[in-house]
Amino acid sequence: MIEPVGAAYDAVAPLYAELFSDALKTRPLERALLAAFAELVQDGPVADLGCGPGHVTAHLHALGPTTFGVDLSPAMIALARQAHPDLRFDEGSMTALDLADGSLGGILALYSVIHVPPARLPAVLSEFERVLTPGGHLLLGFFAGDDPAPQVFDHKVTPAYRWSPDGLANLLRQAGFTEVARLVREPYADERFQQAHLLVRKPFAP
């Protein structure tokens, strides 16, 4: 049975694609982060987890690294395949990725863990660590908050959580990652919250 988050995004997939497929055009900081990430993961492959309609997958792929998308929502995957027929898009869950250990050079997860209940997030981050090769990078995007504890809010699709950058960075450290960089920016006029990105790396074995 499809998880509730997937069903919620199925219900809004066409509208979501219409509203956000061109969003990067007005997000210069996000484009710069993706360009830097692309340089770090040129050897690929890179999985865009929670890829939605595939616009960021296609953007990153155009920057060089072999990139494919994974999403829980069948409707989102259908739209992504229609818009970008030359790229690979798979249905799948971040809680149990159908990928071999150490098979990825990079993971892009932009606002795709925001719906994960805090108690389940460590297991998701461990799954990310499992499929990344040593030296591989993860770029994580999320809604930021000042409260040390994650805060639930009324996301327009389905309930979501805001995290303090320090709090989420600590979970990533516990999952075995090393922080490389972070970016926190103030919200634009059409946004409610600060936007944050954490770039982390899976260390090489000692």
Order of helices and strands: HHEHEHEEHEEEHEE
Report strand %. Answer: 25-35%
Question: Helical proportion?
Answer: 25-40%
Structural class: alpha/beta
Envelope shape: globular
Tell me the radius of gyration. Answer: 16 Å
The largest sheet, given as strand count, sense and whether it forms a barrel, is:
7 strands, mixed
What does this structure look like?
It is a single chain. With 206 residues, this protein is of the alpha/beta class. The protein is built from six helices and nine strands. A seven-stranded mixed sheet has the order 3-2-1-4-5-9-8, sandwiched between helices. β4 (104-110), α5 (121-131) and β5 form a beta-alpha-beta unit. It starts with a helix and ends in a 5-residue tail after the last strand. The model has no long low-confidence stretch (mean pLDDT 93).
Précis, in short:
The protein has 206 residues and is an alpha/beta fold.
Give the helix/strand layout.
Elements: H1 4-20, H2 28-40, E1 46-49, H3 55-62, E2 67-71, H4 74-83, E3 89-91, E4 104-110, H5 121-131, E5 132-143, E6 151-153, E7 160-162, H6 165-174, E8 178-185, E9 195-201
Parallel strand pairs: 1-2, 1-4, 2-3, 4-5
Antiparallel strand pairs: 5-9, 6-7, 8-9
Helix pairs in contact: 1-4
